[in-house]
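If you are new to this repository, start here. Below is one unmodified record pulled from the training split, so you can see the exact layout before writing a loader.
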Amino acid sequence: MEAILIITNFPDKTSALTLAQKLIERRAAACINILAESTSIYRWQGETEVSNEIPVFIKTLAKHYRAVEEIIKAIHPYELPEIIAVPVKLGLPAYIQWVADEVTNHS
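And here is the target side for that same chain:
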C-alpha cells in the first residue's frame, strides 16, 4: 500500500474541478486539493512563458497512478501537462489507511 501525491496544474479552476470530480467519482483518488492561482514561469518551445495556473494535489495509491494519468491527459487542455508523482514515505497511518480505503472499489 504505497501512497503517492500526484501534482499537476490547470489553466483555470473550472477544469481543475472537473478533474477532481472525475477522480473522486471513479475512486481513482481519495482527496484532491485545488490550490489558489499561482504564477508559473517556464521555457516552452524555445520561449520563456509566464502564466497563471491552478495547482492540483491528488492523493492516491501508486497502483492507481496510470488511471489518474489517463484521466488528466484526457481532459487537460495543454499539449504537455505536468503530471508528476511523489512517493509518500511517511504519514499518519490512519490517514494513509483512509486514502487506501477510499480508492478501493466498494461493492
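Two things worth knowing about this chain: The mean pLDDT is 95. The longest strand covers residues 47-61.
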